[in-house]
Amino acid sequence: MGKLEGKVAIITGAAQGIGAATAQLFVNEGAFVVLTDIQDDKGKEVAKSLGEKAVYIHHDVSSRKEWEHVLNETEKLFGYVSVLVNNAGIVIQKPLEKYSDEDFHKLYMVNQFGVYLGMMVTYPSMENVGGGSIINISSTSGFRGKAGLMGYNASKFAVRGMTKSAALDFASKNIRVNSVHPGFINTPMTLDHISDEYKEKAMKDTPLGRGGEPEEVAKTILFLACDDSSFSTGSEFITDGGRLA
Ligand code: NAP
């Protein structure tokens, strides 16, 4: 019997990277999984490879209308939601003096507002099944400032704080809310959007001396999604090769 047997999960940003690895692990553990993203071709391909317990739905996390659509479709296909992984995120790396208002606003809308919408739209579904688990993906950038990442830092600190408020507000509904803080993970986000200079610095700054794999973060997310973490809420779970130690 899998750790998520029969549970229904929504994972955002699941066309690649940490989200795709988490979807794979959840299906292996018996869950029905709705993968959402804005990269439709990739997302459909990943869902197809996972078999009939997985479907892909197009979804921009910054849109309430699209969140409502995802929830309605999920309930029609699989039933009420027990697990939400707010994973979709973007990074914009540039020195503060080169930031535009649009850069800051975009980071806010996807990384922070998208997480707020996810929690707000899905919690009533969780109430219908007596509770659930929400996992918000922050970062080590939710603990510590990094040059060139001002808007990203702001959004990831916010996710950490929002997680704690939501955990307190939802505790009486038996909905647990925790945040995950990956360090440098080998995904398209870091491979395509981060400078070589930053990557080199990140490796030097990581005691285990390597980037993490998305599957290693997925295991932390699974722990929080299932009953193994039944007494954890409002907490931070760090998967960073020792970077914050
Ligand atoms: P990734 O490889 O870039 O995957 C994220 C997915 O989210 C991409 O398919 C991306 O599409 C999609 N996305 C972007 N904007 C979206 C939107 N508005 N609505 C829905 N989906 C959207 O990223 P990852 O490395 O797996 O990261 C996953 C999460 O972990 C993020 O929240 C990230 O901040 C966090 N994290 C990652 C690392 C790391 O080192 N990789 C470290 C700490 C925290 P596009 O590619 O088209 O943007």
Largest sheet: 7 strands, parallel
Q: Name the helix and strand elements from N-terminus to C-terminus, one letter apiece.
A: EHEHEHEHEHEHHHE
Average pLDDT for all residues: 97
Number of H- or I-type helical stretches: 8
Which CATH C-level class is it? Alpha Beta
Structural class: alpha/beta
Count of structural domains: 1
End-to-end span in angstroms?
36 Å
Q: Give the CATH H-level superfamily.
A: NAD(P)-binding Rossmann-like Domain
Backbone shape: globular
Could you explain how this protein is built, in words?
- The protein is of the alpha/beta class and 245 residues long.
- The chain has a single domain (8-239), classed as Rossmann fold, CATH 3.40.50.720.
- The protein has eight helices and seven strands, in the order βαβαβαβαβαβαααβ.
- Strands 3-2-1-4-5-6-7 form a seven-stranded parallel β-sheet, sandwiched between helices.
- Helix 1 crosses helix 8 (214-225), helix 3 (64-77) runs parallel beside helix 4 (101-128) and helix 4 (101-128) runs parallel beside helix 5 (150-170).
